């Protein structure tokens, strides 16, 4: 069943892919007989055949995942999305602290230790990657705003 | 031979540069660390660390040396969790658990770990020596490969993939096609027409390779860990003070040699890597040496066989990657992508045009092997402690590392969402028994396959005959048929089937 | 090279007028390479970074903005960073072609301000050493009588700057670009391998990349597509124009800024470049990055850009690449 659902989703995407290959892609002129459209067309046909095969004879009946685990996975994905969305506004240190703490808590770490882990990951990560290795991690828009303000202030004084 | 020696001289000049030497050591060290983390295999380790290594802004040869060190180290580190935890980090380490874990349970953990380090060293070194002899020869020969020959080579690559990887051939094929389809996104290299870009400028040049790799491997790995999560620490066997003895080495020397040969040549085959090599080596060794039925109960030959083979395969897989631009395994596909990111087109011309990179990489592997042996024998206890890192800290750490790596490439937070989405997709693929290696190989080889096919047809002015016009192409097509037919034939011969049973149903 | 000479002369005149060690006061100068590190745009930015060092008050940063063969950066500097006074973005003739063929969206070459060049490269018609073609005339005669009789290859797709060289070649013989037998490769390295391996007969490359191949003697350059003879090591190689063909292909490499930058901010950058052009160090930096001298800044460059965009759109529309 799980196979069939997944194959169904793939089928929809592949149909769209095929539709574009068969109708939309073309070049003003080309030097090879295939052009930009033939290869995607071939791929779409092979993919559709494979998907048909899986729909016909699925081999994975169920994913064997308990409802609780689904819940945990969904929470993980949501946490990742939140982490990604907050990466620039809050900056690396704060976002990583929040994400690390929440994830560690969710996966069963003791409360204080989880916060300690999040804090350490954020601060050590920033120190090592941004300061030591010179990678461009976001400082955070809030922190940056504060920084530029002090900077212009000192400049005016000077 | 002269070319080899002067090449090696060039290479060692690059690799022995103090900075690069330090990178080899660091790469091996961190590679072993990440490889030792339970559940994270070499491919995931390299995928997670690749963007960071890239973002450091080193010259290409240094960055690649670092990556090769990580790759090698991760292959080494994988065996620690196999032996002490009975949890293989990836498919290539599965065979190591069969005899390695029983040895540790018999109270010989230290002996098992040190023996596997020596076997890995022997296999790895053997492969690098063969590689430095073969690669330039193959490269010189491969300069004469025409686009039509490359098409044949691709057919061979996908044929070997189909016959050797995965339980369900349909799923393996579909995985490869998904990779190929992902590769069609972006501007067509022949006509300059944009395909599947939907007007988004960010993907005009195609989906970024790093995003696909980190998403499909790193982030999918994270979701798998969350799914299987057992709270707290994993139970690990202690590292004791037992150590490998000379008599052990004497007993396993032929095993190691045989399996190094097997591993190297299976590693060369495109699409098959350490997992197939270690399985074949273990199977062969069991057939040859297991006269008392001790394999699987802690026989040291059963441990040495897959260890020598998977490290030899790691070296073998580098040969087609460096000389033809065709990766021999999922991990080398990632290294190939790394080369492309530095605007270095791996292939026959690389030895002529960028000898410092080709040979620097080879020389760093010699050093890497020695470094790993030196690091591993005394420090194995330290690495083993990695196993005791509680899962609830390890799991978020993967995401933090992956995010750092991806964000620092361009500073685009949208990419972070993209890897999350791809991670979810990769997790579903894994849950449904798709192997991810075909996907990434399809993605990397897709452009080569299509473009060479169309190049060949532009050269011939549309005559399809050009595809079978040359003996090189014909030989490769012959080999492609062979790799598909041979396993089936062997299976049939070895397993007399009962009356009326359909062919191949035994699998 | 007249252009370069005029440029140098102008720059010398400028530097006489201005105090010798004038530095342009630009806060946190930045060069954006619209690609991943290691490519041509990276090199272009390195020229500015090293070459301008004595002429700026602050050190220059090189940043990367990959995506869409430069489209991401072009869009960025036409939408959000239009008046960014501290950043220049690397471009090449290939970027101009992308503007012409609409790959950069609706923005035209008039929407940004062209600052200065980092240098140039020129097209080269290359064959294998054992090729039957000894000069351009032989090749052009064959192409003229039957364009499909010669397999031509280059390192870019239809509509790329590499392809453009082929289109110019075939136009010179009186044929149409669609009639040639063109094979697109993924970069010059692959195309050179195919030339040496015998898959293609003629390779349309760039002069800069041939430096390392000249000594090996495996290839022969039939003609250089520069307006005048080049210096060593190409002094012996005749230009296409000398051989009686109107084939000139200059690949500009340089920098642009957002379209709404103030004249004063724009002038700071132009001054810095012109000051640098006058020094021998600039020529050194140019050479070290594999570029040939072609120094244009400010209005001169704007004129050169308008000129080449007109030429490129002519060929592109003829080939049906622009509707």
TrEMBL record, chain A:
Transmembrane regions listed in the UniProt entry: 39-57, 69-84, 90-107, 114-135
Domain DUF1468: 5-138
Top-level taxon: Bacteria
Key words, A-Z: Membrane, Transmembrane, Transmembrane helix
Signal peptide limits: none
Name of the protein described by the UniProt record: Putative tricarboxylic transport membrane protein
UniProtKB/TrEMBL annotation, chain B:
Keyword Transmembrane helix part of the UniProt annotation: yes
This protein's UniProt keywords: Membrane, Transmembrane, Transmembrane helix
Domain DUF112 positions: 21-441
Pfam families: TctA (PF01970)
Transmembrane regions listed in the UniProt entry: 21-40, 52-74, 112-138, 150-166, 173-191, 203-226, 255-282, 324-344, 356-377, 397-425, 432-449, 474-491
Database matches in PANTHER family: TRICARBOXYLIC TRANSPORT PROTEIN (PTHR35342)
Protein name: Putative tricarboxylic transport membrane protein
TrEMBL record, chain C:
Pfam short name (any one): TctC
UniProt record similarity statement: Belongs to the UPF0065 (bug) family.
InterPro entries (UniProt xref): BUG (IPR005064), Bug_dom1 (IPR042100)
Keyword set includes Signal: yes
Name assigned to this protein: Putative tricarboxylic transport membrane protein
Signal recorded as keyword: yes
Family matches, as Gene3D superfamilies: Bordetella uptake gene, domain 1 (3.40.190.150), Periplasmic binding protein-like II (3.40.190.10)
Organism, scientific name: Limimaricola pyoseonensis
Family matches, as PANTHER family: TRICARBOXYLATE-BINDING PROTEIN, UPF0065 PROTEIN YFLP
Residues of the signal peptide: 1-22
Keywords assigned: Signal
């Amino acid at each position: 069943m799980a196979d069939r659902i997944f194959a169904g989703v793939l089928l929809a995407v592949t149909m769209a892919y095929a539709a574009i290959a068969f109708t939309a892609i073309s070049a003003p002129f080309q030097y090879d007989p295939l052009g930009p459209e033939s290869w995607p067309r071939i791929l779409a046909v092979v993919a559709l055949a494979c998907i048909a095969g899986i729909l016909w004879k699925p081999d994975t009946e169920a994913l064997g995942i308990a409802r609780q685990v689904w819940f945990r996975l969904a929470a993980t994905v949501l946490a990742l999305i939140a982490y990604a969305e907050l990466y620039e506004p809050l900056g690396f240190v704060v976002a990583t602290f929040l994400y690390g703490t929440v994830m560690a808590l969710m996966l069963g770490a003791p409360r204080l230790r989880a916060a300690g882990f999040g804090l350490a990951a954020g601060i050590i990560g920033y120190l090592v990657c941004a300061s030591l290795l010179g990678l461009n991690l976001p400082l955070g828009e809030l922190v940056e705003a504060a920084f530029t303000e002090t900077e212009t202030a000192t400049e005016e004084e000077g | 031979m002269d070319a080899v020696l002067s090449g090696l001289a060039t290479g060692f000049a690059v690799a022995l540069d103090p900075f690069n030497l330090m990178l080899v050591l660091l790469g091996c060290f961190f590679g072993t660390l990440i490889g030792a983390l339970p559940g994270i295999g070499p491919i995931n380790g390299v995928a997670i660390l690749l963007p960071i290594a890239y973002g450091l802004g080193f010259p290409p040869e240094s960055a690649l040396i670092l990556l090769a060190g990580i790759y090698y180290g991760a292959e080494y580190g994988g065996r620690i969790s196999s032996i002490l935890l009975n949890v293989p980090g990836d498919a290539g380490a599965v065979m190591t658990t069969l005899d390695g874990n029983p040895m540790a349970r018999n109270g010989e953990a230290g002996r098992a770990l040190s023996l596997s380090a020596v076997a890995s060293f022997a296999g790895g070194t053997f492969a690098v020596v063969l590689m430095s002899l073969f690669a330039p020869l193959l490269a010189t020969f491969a300069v004469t490969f025409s686009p039509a020959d490359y098409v044949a080579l691709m057919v061979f690559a996908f044929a070997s993939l189909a016959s050797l990887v995965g339980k369900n051939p349909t799923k393996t094929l579909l995985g490869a096609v998904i990779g190929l389809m992902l590769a069609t996104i972006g501007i067509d290299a022949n006509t300059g027409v944009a395909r599947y870009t939907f007007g988004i400028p960010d993907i005009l040049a195609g989906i970024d390779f790093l995003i696909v790799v980190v998403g499909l491997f790193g982030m999918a790995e994270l979701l798998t860990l969350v799914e299987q999560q057992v709270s707290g620490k994993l139970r690990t066997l202690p590292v004791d003070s037992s150590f490998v003895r000379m008599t052990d080495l004497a007993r396993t020397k032929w095993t190691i040699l045989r399996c190094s040969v097997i591993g190297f040549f299976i590693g060369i085959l495109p699409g098959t890597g350490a997992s197939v090599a270690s399985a074949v080596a273990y199977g062969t060794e069991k057939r040859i040496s297991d006269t008392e039925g001790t394999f699987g109960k802690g026989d040291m030959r059963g441990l040495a066989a897959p260890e020598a083979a998977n490290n030899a395969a790691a070296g073998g897989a580098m040969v087609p990657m460096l000389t033809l631009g065709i990766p021999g395994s999922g991990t080398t596909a990632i290294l190939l992508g790394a080369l492309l990111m530095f605007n270095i087109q791996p292939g026959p011309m690389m030895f002529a045009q960028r000898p410092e990179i080709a040979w620097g990489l080879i020389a760093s592997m010699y050093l890497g092997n020695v470094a790993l042996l030196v690091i591993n024998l005394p420090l194995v206890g330290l690495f083993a402690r990695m196993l005791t890192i509680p899962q609830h800290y390890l799991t978020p750490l993967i995401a933090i590392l992956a995010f750092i790596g991806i964000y620092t490439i361009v500073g685009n937070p949208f990419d972070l969402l993209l890897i999350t989405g791809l991670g979810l997709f990769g997790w579903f693929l894994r849950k449904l028994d798709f192997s991810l290696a075909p996907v990434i190989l399809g993605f990397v080889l897709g452009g080569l396959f299509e473009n060479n096919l169309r190049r060949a047809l532009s050269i011939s002015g549309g005559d399809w005959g050009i595809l079978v016009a040359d003996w090189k192409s014909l030989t490769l097509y012959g080999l492609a048929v062979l790799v598909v037919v041979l396993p089936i034939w062997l299976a049939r011969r070895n397993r007399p089937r009962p009356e009326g049973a359909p062919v191949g149903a035994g699998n | 090279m007249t252009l370069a000479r005029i440029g140098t002369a102008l720059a010398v005149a400028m530097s006489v007028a201005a105090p010798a060690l004038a530095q342009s006061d630009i806060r946190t100068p930045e060069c954006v390479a619209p690609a991943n590190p290691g490519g041509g745009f990276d090199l272009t930015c390195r020229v500015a970074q090293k070459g301008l060092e004595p002429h700026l008050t602050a050190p220059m940063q090189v940043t990367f903005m990959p995506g869409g063969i430069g489209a991401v950066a072009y869009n960025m500097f036409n939408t959000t960073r239009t008046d960014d006074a501290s950043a220049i973005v690397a471009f090449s003739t290939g970027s101009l072609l992308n503007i012409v063929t609409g790959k950069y969206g609706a923005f035209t070459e008039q929407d940004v301000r062209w600052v200065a060049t980092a240098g140039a490269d020129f097209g080269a018609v290359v064959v294998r050493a054992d090729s039957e073609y000894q000069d351009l005339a032989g090749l052009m005669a064959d192409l003229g009588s039957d364009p499909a009789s010669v397999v031509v290859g280059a390192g870019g797709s239809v509509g790329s700057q590499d392809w453009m060289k082929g289109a110019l070649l075939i136009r010179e013989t009186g044929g149409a670009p669609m009639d040639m037998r063109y094979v697109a490769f993924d970069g010059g390295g692959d195309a050179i391998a195919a030339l040496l391996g015998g898959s293609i007969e003629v390779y349309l490359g760039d002069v800069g990349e041939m430096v390392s191949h000249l000594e090996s003697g495996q290839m022969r350059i039939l003609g250089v597509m520069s307006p005048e003879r080049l210096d060593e090591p190409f002094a012996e190689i005749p230009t296409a124009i000398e051989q009686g063909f109107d084939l000139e292909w200059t690949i500009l490499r340089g920098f642009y800024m957002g379209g709404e930058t103030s004249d004063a901010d724009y002038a700071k950058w132009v001054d810095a470049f012109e000051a640098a052009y006058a020094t021998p160090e600039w020529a050194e930096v140019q050479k070290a990055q594999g570029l040939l001298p072609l120094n244009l800044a400010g209005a001169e460059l704007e004129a050169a850009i308008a000129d080449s965009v007109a030429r490129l759109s002519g060929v592109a529309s003829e080939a049906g690449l622009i509707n």
